[in-house]
């Protein structure tokens, strides 16, 4: 991604290298779309006549729906293409898919893929603006943007905060994008979890590593829980769900170690009783539903910005 | 559902408790949409800027398509979410799904679910208006409304009629919604089928029970056949398809016991040669295709009414 | 299809019997849509208020997407119905599906089906205009039209050309539609491939048969490669992919036998290294991506023409 300060960008492949003066206006625009969503007054002509293709090589009803809604509310022609993992063979096939979508005069291409870098590869082959909707263990930039917008709405800033990201960080593109964004904006990030899921090598990203929740949550402004994929248990990286909750689940006692009124976040879908106690997920400190709402707004802002930058560039 | 006479309603969860002065205006509105569908003159702005989500936990191409068409013709942004039965765990997950769709600012939520009461549960958790598109063995209200509209168009009234509902009543939410509507409107309902599929306990619903087609069809104004699910045979509730047709299939001889020009109805899809003789399904007395047409019109009326009542309430 | 010269047509079931004065104006209209697609200036009201249903009994993301885009860009309400092969039983069921879609007031019905003649069968039962999107071994008319448009854009004519169609012709509805169109327009067609895939009986179609690429490609203006379905190998009709490429793959050496600057075409998706060398697929002579682009434009033209002819007829 071209990351010159203040310049429009043509793709959204990741947040690494993005600057505060690119991020803040995007969040401002998303904020205004959040209000328009509530009043059902979104202008229908922002993306009129534009084609948005949701190209999902991994299933994700939630993220796909969020992008689909964002595109439709702005008036785009939205096409869903779910590609069963099994029918994908080689990088070559991915490039042929890119060429096909390009020939169809696609304006916006939203891509989720199990391989890190797949959206970037596509971006080099298409005229469309590409949005990374999650690629392997790399990034999931719109998730971090929606997290940031949610934080900013509650705490008024993205700078000077202490954010604890807890759980399966090693396998989380959500964590990775959040680390880039939050450190860029001047906040401190702590990664918290067992050594199997939070290896010390992650310290290279400019973050603190903690293997005990009690240490990691102390005085945090934001506690961001990650979903524990069930396959982590079958592969032996963690013991049972019950054991995991006992040591790394977010409960009332642990949350009280954080700042008073610390925000509780989760990208969803939650495993209640595994990484988070159900009552905490539904408490006043939880902004989990607001994250979903800001998700649609952030995606509208991204689609809007990318389309404008293409056509005025 | 708030069922005060003449009042708008916020959800359509079932027809039990609905009053004639709620039902009749809805059918009038549907009638007008049926005409607009034929002339391709549906106003596109009735649901413009509104979000309709089709949340189907059970497959049903036919019903899903009917709601999708209804929403799109009125200008809504329509999103299909098919949730594989396997990925659904507990009621808790259903509530998290509700919370997510709520956060996305959904206006209309159409739900089909294998469990009775699931749409009502969702309705308590979302700001959207919920339409029950079939829940377990409970209700399928839009099916009964479209049946009613079809009957009214041909017989001019919904009162004072004798309607025979034949076949697998015990497992039919369609039958249940029809019983509520037809008895509310002042018609008599007869349930006809073998004791395994029409247990005598159903008499509590204020209907007559018959175990012989010859008795049940006598002088009926309407003969409504139900689909026999194939699993009823494998589970031993009925013998072979051939035996079933011999005793409970609708053929010419039996139909002649009903009133002259009695209407023949079926919610589809049909098992020709099992519950209904093919030539009867295609005869002049059959209004089966008109039921499908009225289905789209009824759903347009429901979506329209629910949206208006939300925003003027 | 009514094939009187110069007359509008109500369905597009195949190209057999279509006349040049039906084909040429359709390509002209498609050409203009290709330009509008590029400038994002397609008028949104051509199909406003019309319902297009994509009824696919066989999977085809590519063709389905192309029709979906075509319909949406022209403002239609587009509904996708994918019918799993397994749930389809008998011709009777297909007719019931037709009746249902008819009752829903469908204007345009795009059908792909494994059985030859299924779209024609549907066309006799519905008021909608039916477009054949591929039926068994019969025809795939929009593919041949997009091929023709691509050729015409490059060579200026569809008459007097020599077109070599190479590969699995016996199982190709694409080949069949192209043969009809190209011979109708006054070009010569050669079929090239092993006797198992290009049986001599095909000569009845008014084409030349060649079993050696070297003979078939000599002085050809257009080289059209077909996809080799993998099941042809498992069923023993061809040896390994490697052997196939050795004898029937398109490589540089063979392509040089054709006219200088002969066009290289492929309906996609390609098996690179099986029927076509990768570098040839990406060479300056390849118009494979342009075929995809013209695909959307041709489908827009077909949908437009069919709708107009229905409503002015």
What is the fourth-level CATH superfamily of the largest domain in chain A?
Aspartate/ornithine carbamoyltransferase
Main CATH class of the largest domain in chain A? Alpha Beta
* Uncertain runs of chain A: 1-5, 85-91
CATH fold type of the largest domain in chain A:
Rossmann fold
For the termini of chain A, the CA-CA separation is 15 Å
- Which sequence of SSEs, written as H and E, runs from N to C of chain A? HEHEHEHEHEHEEHEHHHEHH
**Morphology call of chain A:** globular
Residue-averaged pLDDT of chain A: 92
- Which structural class fits the helix and strand makeup of chain A? alpha/beta
Tell me what the CATH architecture of the largest domain in chain A is. 3-Layer(aba) Sandwich
Number of helices of chain A: 12
The percentage of residues in β strands of chain A lies in 5-15%
Q: In oligomeric terms, what are we looking at?
A: homotrimer
Radius of gyration of chain A: 19 Å
Largest sheet of chain A: 5 strands, parallel
Tell me the count of domains of chain A: 2
Largest interface: A-B, 27 and 19 residues
* Range of helix content of chain A: 40-55%
Spatial order of the strands in the main sheet of chain A?
7-6-5-8-9
Quantity of strands of chain A, as a count: 9
């Amino acid at each position: 991604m071209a990351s010159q300060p203040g310049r429009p960008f043509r793709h959204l492949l990741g947040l690494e290298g993005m600057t505060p003066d690119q991020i803040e206006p995007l969040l401002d625009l998303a904020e205004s779309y959040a209000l328009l969503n509530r009043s059902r007054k979104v202008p229908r002509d922002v993306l009129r006549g534009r084609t948005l293709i949701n190209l999902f090589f991994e299933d994700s009803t939630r993220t796909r729906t969020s992008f689909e809604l964002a595109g439709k509310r702005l008036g785009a022609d939205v096409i869903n293409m779910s590609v069963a993992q099994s029918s994908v063979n080689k990088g070559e096939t991915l490039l042929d898919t890119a060429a096909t979508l390009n020939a169809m005069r696609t304006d916006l291409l939203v891509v989720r893929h199990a391989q890190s870098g797949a959206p970037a590869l596509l971006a080099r082959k298409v005229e469309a603006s590409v949005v990374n909707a999650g690629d392997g263990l790399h990034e999931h930039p719109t998730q971090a943007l929606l997290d940031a917008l949610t934080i900013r709405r509650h705490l008024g800033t993205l700078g000077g905060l202490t954010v604890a990201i807890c759980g399966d960080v090693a396998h989380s593109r959500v964590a990775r994008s959040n680390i880039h964004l939050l450190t860029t904006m001047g906040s401190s990030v702590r990664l918290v979890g067992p050594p199997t899921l939070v290896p010390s090598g992650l310290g290279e990203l400019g973050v603190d590593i903690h293997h005990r929740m009690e240490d990691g949550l102390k005085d945090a402004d934001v506690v961001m829980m990650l979903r524990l994929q069930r396959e982590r248990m079958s592969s032996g990286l963690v013991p049972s769900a019950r054991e995991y909750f006992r040591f790394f689940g977010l409960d009332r006692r642990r949350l009280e170690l954080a700042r008073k009124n610390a925000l509780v976040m989760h990208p969803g879908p939650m495993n209640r009783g595994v990484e988070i106690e159900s009552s905490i997920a539904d408490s006043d400190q939880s902004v989990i539903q607001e994250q979903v709402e800001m998700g649609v707004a952030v995606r509208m802002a991204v689609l809007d910005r990318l389309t404008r930058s293409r056509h005025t560039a």
